[in-house]
Amino acid sequence: MKKTTPALIAASLAFGLAACSSPKTGTAQNGDLDFAKQTSTKQSAEVNGQTVRYRAFEGIVYVKNPADAKYETINIYVPEAYYAGGSIEGYTADTAPIFFPNQIGGYMPAEAGKPGLDKRNNNQPNAMLVALSKGYVVASAGARGRTAANGKAPAAIVDLKAAVRYLKANDRAMPGDAGKIISNGTSAGGALSALLGATGNSKDYEGHLKALGAADAPDDIFAVSAYCPITDLDHADMAYEWQFNGVNDYKKMNVTMLDYNVKRELVPGTLTAAEIKLSNQLKPLYPAYINSLKLKDAQGRLLTLDKNGNGSFKNHVAGLLAASAQKQLDAGKNLNDRNWLTIKNGKVTAVDFDKYAKAAGRQKTPPAFDAVDLSAGENQLFGTATVDKQHFTDFSMQHNTAEGATLADAQTVKIMNPLNYIGSSEAKAPKHWRIRVGTNDRDTSLAVSAVLAAKLQNHGHSVDYFLPWDVPHSGDYDLDELFAWMKQVAAAK
Ligand code: DHB
After folding, report:
1. Which residues form the BD-FAE-like domain (predicted)?
2. Which contiguous run of DSSP H or E holds residue 133?
3. What is the pLDDT at residue 19?
4. 410 C-alpha to ligand 1 centroid (Å)
5. What are phi and psi of 52, to 5 degrees?
6. Which of 133, 156, 169, 175 is 20 to 30 A from 412 in CA distance terms?
7. How many CB atoms lie within 10 A of CB 344?
8. CATH match of 5-231+474-490 with 1.10.357.140
9. Cα-Cα-Cα-Cα dihedral sign, residues 125, 129, 183, 380
């Protein structure tokens, strides 16, 4: 793929002129999707004792008719070396992959990200800054979120797609290879990263993209990184009870969040009789769902559940935990305090999944995502411009306790779930996927990412899926490994 030297020189010249005339950050005029007209500032930061220099193109509105120009903007950062014909770690202005991290958390509105220090991670350089140090072009798009009337599903995924279209439409004018866009996100952002990958070029989003005036370009991407994706929302309630049924004490995470400034409080409690009943009703719904997917493991064995929720799929999820524990044992760690593991001669020989669930602890009350009283964040995600919160599963609609509650339309629920697209000819999904969910993550069932990974693998995608030991609901904690993976997949076809 890609570009001509003259376009780059022209872009470079345009920068020089613009930088002289305007020292401030370039802001796009609405309606102009031409990157060549953008101005930039020169910025630098320290990464591991090295100064990383880059040009910053910030606050670019990436659609012609923004519904919310505060969020529908993209920040683009280019290593300075690429303006002098240089290379970094083997990448050049023409070949550098584009790292595309979103900042979305809790399905809330998210502004475009900036390189800097990660306050959730000991003030280490964040993924964007590390990416620049390793020669990636970085493009971080903001997206609308559930608290706004115009940010309901599918707004955030439509926005990310529009941003990808902007990058593809401007591939010639911009350093970086828009044929090598690698998406990254955590939690709701991980779900949207996966959805972005799974639904490449799908017609299902076309009307929404047209309404925003998205650039006329494809929106398929090259690779997906997803940390703890809160996905498959329409089956996540039953998945949660499949895992946590019988665990009646909980520590509920009360999350208030705006623009990724997250405040989390753990509120302890015990399920009420009504909630236990809901759990008992939800759990037996999961086997039929799992069995309908006809998933297979790496050896080609069918992953199924019996009516009690036991079977090869459960053993498969337990096996993921065993693999994580084994890595700890191989590194010399003592795991004798984990009552759910059986260890013989330094080898994990059995995982008691029910004991694991109890030890991990319940964090959500049933139904975990489509709350019967519409109190979950996801209820607000599936609202409309005029109805703030809705149900999105038949189960919770039938068990509704809120006054006048309504059900989201089926098409909106469909286009928020990547599983509806993987393996379908309606979309172009990338070959390369990396999925990480910590063994201490209780925000959704481990089954959710296991299903996503298995479905991808079953359809020929290459999936690097692992559950890092004792890691809670979080992302970007293993940047060395993330970037090693990115380098390897970017070199592959
Ligand atoms: C997030 C966490 C959740 O538990 C959830 O239901 C949705 C989103 C998050 O951290 O993004």
Report:
1. 124-247
2. helix 127-133
3. 35
4. 22
5. -105, 120
6. 169
7. 8
8. no
9. positive
Ligand 1 atom with the shortest distance to the CA of 369: 6
Q: For residues 43 and 23, give the distance between their C-alpha atoms in angstroms, rounded to a whole number.
A: 12
Q: Which residues face 341 on adjacent strands?
A: 351
Distance 255 CA to ligand 1 centre (A): 8
CA dihedral 142, 169, 100, 442 (to 10 degrees): 70
The first and second tokens of residue 251, run together, are: 């520590």
Q: Determine which residue's CA is closest to atom 8 belonging to ligand 1.
A: 106
The residue with tokens 């208030």 is: 256
Tokens of 13: 């010249």
Residue 57's pLDDT is what? Answer: 98
Instruction: Say whether 233-417 and 5-231+474-490 share the same fold.
Output: yes
**What pTM does this model have?**
0.94
Strands 73-79 and 124-125: unpaired
- State the residue for tokens 């290459």: 462
Q: Ligand 1 centre and the CA of 443: distance in Å? A: 7
Q: In order along the chain (493 residues), what is the average pLDDT of each group of 10 residues?
A: 49 38 37 93 95 98 98 98 98 98 97 93 94 98 98 98 98 98 98 99 98 98 98 99 98 72 82 98 98 97 98 98 98 97 98 98 97 97 98 98 98 98 97 98 98 98 98 96 98 85
Q: What are phi and psi of 171, to 5 degrees?
A: -60, -35
Tell me the domain boundaries of the chain.
Answer: 5-231+474-490, 233-417
User: 233-417: which CATH topology?
Assistant: Rossmann fold (3.40.50)
Distance from C-alpha of 36 to C-alpha of 57, rounded to nearest angstrom: 11
Which residue, chain included where needed, has tokens 């089954």?
A: 447
Is 132:138 a contact under the CB 8 Å cutoff? Answer: yes
Measured CA to CA, the distance from residue 103 to residue 188 in angstroms comes to 9
